[in-house]
Amino acid sequence: MAQEMIYREMTIEEVFKRFPSKSQKLAQEMTNAGLHCHGCSASTWETIETGMLGHGFSDQQINDLIGKLNQILEEKEDLSTITITPRAAKKFQEILADEGKQGWGLRYGEKAAGCSGFEYFLDYSEKAKGDDLVFSSSGIEVHVNQKSASRLLGSVIDYVDGLQGAGFKITNPHVKSSCGCGTSHGY
Description:
This protein is an alpha/beta fold. The chain folds into 2 domains: about 10-75, no CATH class; about 85-185, HesB-like domain (Hypothetical Protein Aq_1857, Chain: A, Sandwich). It is built from 6 helices and 9 strands, in the order H-H-H-H-E-H-E-E-E-E-H-E-E-E-E. It has helices at about 10-20, 25-35, 50-55, 60-75, 85-100, 145-150; strands spanning about 85, 105-110, 120-125, 130-135, 140-145, 155-160, 165-170, 175-180, 185. The chain has a 4-stranded mixed sheet. Strands 1-6-7 form a 3-stranded mixed sheet. A two-stranded antiparallel sheet has the order 8-9. The longest helix is centred in the middle third of the chain and has 16 residues, at about 60-75. The chain starts with 11 loop residues before the first helix and ends with a strand. About 30% of the residues are buried.
């Protein structure tokens, strides 16, 4: 079975609906390419090509973006763990140092919120609780409540820093739906 791909003729909304588990990474790549209004309701109906041409981008820049988006689709997930990228681990260590909490872990979970059902949360965790699963990635301990672990396994926590904002971004292969801006999700 051939892998689904993203094409320049697809609407931005269609991309997020067809690939909800990758929506955070896809949205970030679109932002990195200069397509900054991808999350607004007025532009999600545009095709990637129309949106980029309307912002003055060339055919080559559109092709480059499509290539990067399809590379994201090809990335494989490890469904047995939770991964923190080295960039996210470095940023988390910096935050811990600033807060005087060196050696603490990262609590990762979700709560009912947003237009699609759930939103992720990240917090400090001095030590794992009795009903937590503990994962280690890039030198960081990640504490996850057992009750939500089945929905969170395979997640990748990254940190991005760009013109449109900085923050931790999560990609979760279990997500089946996502809001247009990629901040809330459903299963």
